[in-house]
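S.,

As promised, the magnesium ion run. Input:
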Amino acid sequence: MNYSGITNGMYGLIVGDALGVPVEFMDRGEIEWREQGPVTGMEGGGTYNMPAGTWSDDSSMALATLDSIKRTGTIDLKDIMDRVVLWDYKGKYTPDGFTFDVGRTCDEAIIKYKKTGDVTTCGRTGENANGNGALMRILPVSVFWANKQMSVSRDVTESAIKSIELVGALTHNHIRSGIACGIHYFITKNILMYKDKLILNEMIQKGIDEAFDYYSRKDGYNSELVHYEELSEIQELRKYDSERIVGSGYVVESLIAAIWCIITTDTFKDCVLKAVNLGDDTDTTAAIAGGLAGLYYGHGAVPSEWCSEIKGKKVINNLIWLESIYEDAVGYDEDLYRKYDGIDKWDIMSKGTVVQVVGYGNSTDKENDAADFEVFCRMMDSFWVAVNRYRQMMNKGNDGYVVSVLLGLGCLYYIAGFEGIKIEDEYKALVHYDDVDISDLEFKRYDRENKKRRRNRECF
Ligand SMILES: [Mg+2]
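Predicted complex:
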């Protein structure tokens, strides 16, 4: 699978979810008139009395789906449901092994699937199957198909929509919910395709136009498509007062609310906070809005204090974070690629190895290196903990590996302007292992622009 977009989208979804969890089910008046006022960042306590940064079913079900896609390389409905069962019954894909905030329709579907093992009948049918529980977890599937569309010349729309609707129907088996997931796909595809060419609102409008065009030609869909009429002209939707927007659990209102938050804000932060402060199904509205906004703004747009507070870093790292690092590393070093070929191995890689890989990956000239690294470090233990750990390893004579880690860190420090690492750490590594030819490591920018530091090193 091409993982482009996964990290940005999934991280945005998880962050939005975590922001909304403490105030879920509160109406917007209740949120506004709380002692602390509207939500402005990660909070602990509240609805589920969870620590700040805890994310819920929206993220867990999306992560279970992503894990399935990663492991099977395709959309395997049974494998997805098996992983969803693991989440519901065993606490897998949660920050701390504790499952909470399971939606009623999803729960019913899981119970039914456990009894019958049938993916075609487990989802609820009828008009009551139009909660937002399919839409909230559809992002990995949308990204999977968007990437597929971008990598082939033929039109994959039919297959994509069919597949997306089937994944949605695992829990919510109604055309209306299916259309919401389909619209999500068209928007996702347009953001990924035109990210650097169009402005965000143009991409969203284009996605919606394609969705309306597709569904209006499809038998039996027109009477359902009409529910999404308010989305058809986003310039009109933009003018809506917040009073006209409802952040409820109803899939139509939920999608409209999420898109309204995206098109009426200019940053990731403002978008997800606006979604949360609409009240009601706060975490899901923000998860849907955050996922799509994340695809556009990138994970680097997530405020650093939110990154440091987010819970379940290990789960997130294993499932979403390593993908972008992996791709960076692959772009730089083919040997490394061969060594770590096979995504499963990433689950057992140590943090040290990951940092080493980041070091390689970020010494390329990619534009978003600094943001990649900066956020990655925030996701890890504190930077100093990492550095000290490597220093201890160095003292134990853990040779060349440590050198490359420290060189990587030094390079990253420079690129990201990251505070905390001292140049002495690099010196010690270099002196201790003076047989290392650093010119081979091609830290081009390091060499070109950091002359003062290089002079110091020579003196040393
Ligand atoms: Mg939730």
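Confidence is low (pLDDT under 50) at residues 324-391, 393-407, 410-460. Residues 56-58, 101, 283-284 surround magnesium ion (CB under 6 Å).

- D.
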